[in-house]
Amino acid sequence: MISDAPTLASAPLADLRRQISTIIKGKPAQTEDCLACLLAGGHLLIEDLPGVGKTTLAHVLSISLGLRFSRVQFTTDLMPSDLLGVNIYQPAQAGGSSPFQFHPGPVFSQVLLADEINRAGPKTQSALLEAMEEYQVSVDGTTHPLPRPFFVIATQNPSEQLGTHPLPESQLDRFLMCISLGYPDRQAERELLMGQDSRELLRTLRPVMTPEQLMALQRQVLEIHVSPALLDYLQALLEATRSGEWFQEGLSPRAGLALLRAARAKALLSGRDYVSPDDVQAILPQTIAHRLRPRGGSARGAREQVRAMMAAVPLP
Predict the structure, then answer these.
(1) Domains in the chain, please, with CATH?
(2) pTM of this prediction?
(3) Is 39 exposed, middle or buried (0-12, 13-18, 19+ CB in 10 A)?
(4) Which end of the chain has fewer CB atoms within 10 angstroms, the N or the C?
């Protein structure tokens, strides 16, 4: 085990939490989920109504971590080249090897906000698959690496709204977590109404962590100890999703690895150098529910079904 984990992580993470809380009011649980997703090296999907702070959260994270930020508004006419970049013909120059020059798109950032991702067509949605999985994009047969760290925050409108396209399973599986911010409570909303405009507050923020510190924490997450008993519990949960009792199809091995990374990140955020069952339970619904479909047209949503399944699986 790595007994110095709490010492190494506590100071920069405390500063990061404090800065985020000055802008995102009354959402400590959702903020912790975002940080766990980021430390686990995953991508985040936020499904919610417009105007609850999704874009602001992405801005706060990128500024606080000193990361380059790009925002793309996904629309029905957005093309993959608008996102990835394009080769443009240039007049031949002395010593030049090719008349075409690659002009990178907004995906070549460190935090990409894919705003209202389900308003774009499937072709444009799928353009992100390679970037999210392999941290590179291929344009006209040439592979271009993306900067590191690379983190996609995608927002999604509720599927019943007009002009939305459901994300395919392969796209959903690339998101480590799916969360909802929801409406603020009364006290938090009062602070928002009485306080300074969030756009003005964003201009006053400064980085509290460097990209190098973030990547060091991401490496530290991989060293968090996982006991054999905890792995037994994790496998029991995976097997429960595949039993046919709760869901139409179970989780893939890739989803199991994602769940383990998220649990390790949660442990680090809690100041521990080992994963506990509480860590798994704390991140389980938001890590796996978007990958699953309840069985037999259950009236329960996927997240409620995950909680029911979790209650039925014995703790180690």
Answers:
(1) 5-215 (3.40.50.300), 224-312 (1.10.8.80)
(2) 0.87
(3) buried
(4) N
Q: What is the largest CA-CA distance in the chain?
A: 70
Lowest average pLDDT, out of 90-94, 137-141, 174-178, goes to 90-94
Q: Does 143 have pLDDT greater than 80?
A: yes
pLDDT value at position 160? 56
Which sign does the torsion angle of CA 12, 15, 19, 21 carry? positive
Rounded to 10 degrees, the C-alpha dihedral 166/28/6/15 comes to 110
Angle subtended at Cα 208 by Cα 264 and Cα 132, rounded to the nearest 5 degrees: 50
Position 198 scores a pLDDT of 67
Q: Beta partners for 274? A: 225
CB of 43 closer than 8 Å to CB of 132: yes
| Averaged pLDDT, 56-78 | 89
Alpha helices in the chain (DSSP H): 5-23, 28-39, 54-64, 80-84, 122-126, 129-134, 169-172, 186-194, 198-204, 211-221, 228-241, 253-269, 277-288, 302-312
Using a 10 angstrom Cβ sphere, with 0-12 exposed, 13-18 middle and 19 or more buried, the burial of residue 149 is middle
